Amino acid sequence: MATEKFVKDFMRPLDRYCYIKEDATVQDALRLLDKARVESTHPCLVVVGEDQSEKQLSKGLVTPTQLGFGLSAHFLRGAQKSGPIFWEGQLEAECLEGAKKRVGEIMVPIIACVRETEMLMEAVFLLNKYQVDFLPVVNKDDVVGMIHIHEILAYIAGLALEKQDAYRMLSENSDPTPKA
Q1: Is residue 55 very low, low, confident or very high in pLDDT (cuts 50, 70, 90)?
Q2: What are the tens digits of pLDDT across the range 125-178?
């Protein structure tokens, strides 16, 4: 009989993430994400408010996706209107210009969260509904961690492979010829 899994079993505590202020530059965010990459921690920054009343308020998230597309957002918007036109040195020029932006301009605002006591399927539902990779995990009104699609997929892969191996073992051990 399967036991139900809960969000708290898959979340990562907030102390495993880096924080950045929404008024910091994208260049600052790149430094922090590069540090996270080197240290093999999750490539996600928690964006917090600027003034005293917002100090502990998580306002959004920045992942490598937001950084990559945030750096070249100006070009991407223009390419959608008139079609892509590329030139030598364009990537470097776009990146240098984009690095001056504020983190608040490229972050993904937090639009949903999941309680740590919810079943894992609730997190899967919300990740799919909002098309995000991360969700803040809350206990009452406090953000206590994050759940990422990668942890859930690792669990799903483990289940699927375990079942597949069990079926394979059963079929290999079953002899279709009757014994006399």
Answers
A1: very low
A2: 999 999 988 899 999 878 889 999 988 998 888 888 876 665 666 666 655 555
- Domains belonging to the chain, first-starting first, are 7-173 (3.10.580.10)
Maximum CA extent, the chain: 83
Question: What CA–CA distance (Å, rounded) separates 136 from 114?
Answer: 6
Residue 123's alpha-carbon distances to 22, 57, 89, 100, 171, in angstroms, are 26, 21, 42, 34, 35
83: left (phi over 0), alpha (psi -120 to 50) or beta: left
Claim: this prediction has a pTM higher than 0.85: no
What's the token pair of residue 133? 């990779």
Is residue 161 exposed (0-12), middle (13-18) or buried (19+ Cβ within 10 Å)?
Answer: exposed
DSSP secondary structure letters along 21-89: ETTSBHHHHHHHHHHHHHTT--S-EEEE-SSGGGTT-EEEEE-HHHHHHHHTHHHHHHHHHH-----TT
DSSP state of 108: E
